[in-house]
Amino acid sequence: MDLLLIFIAGIFILLGIAGSFLPVIPGPLTSWAGILI
C-alpha cells in the first residue's frame, strides 16, 4: 500500500513538473497534490 502511494505521488510530482512547461496541466497544483500524498 505504501509503495502504491509513493508511486502515485511520484506521478503527480512529475506531472506537476511537466505542467510547469505545458499549458494543458496545472503544474504547481499537481505538484503540491503529489507532495501532500
Question: In terms of per-residue confidence, which ranges show pLDDT below 50 for 5 or more consecutive residues?
Answer: none
Query: In terms of structural class, how would the helical and strand content be classed?
Result: mainly alpha
Helical residues, percent = over 70%
**Major pleated sheet:** none
Strand content bin: under 5%
Number of domains in the coordinates?
1
Topology as a string of helices (H) and strands (E): HH
User: Terminal Cα separation, in Å?
Assistant: 12 Å
Per DSSP, the total helix count is: 2
What would the principal axes of the Cα set say about the shape?
A: elongated
Q: Can you characterise this structure?
A:
The protein has 37 residues and is an all-alpha fold. It has one domain. Helix content is 76%, strand content 0%. The protein contains two helices and no strands. The protein is elongated, with a radius of gyration of 10 Å. The two termini are 12 Å apart.
Write a compact overview of the structure shown:
The protein has 37 residues and is an all-alpha fold.
Write the layout of secondary structure elements.
Elements (H helix, E strand, L loop, with lengths): L1 H18 L7 H10 L1
What features would you highlight for this structure?
about 35 residues, mainly alpha, 2 helices
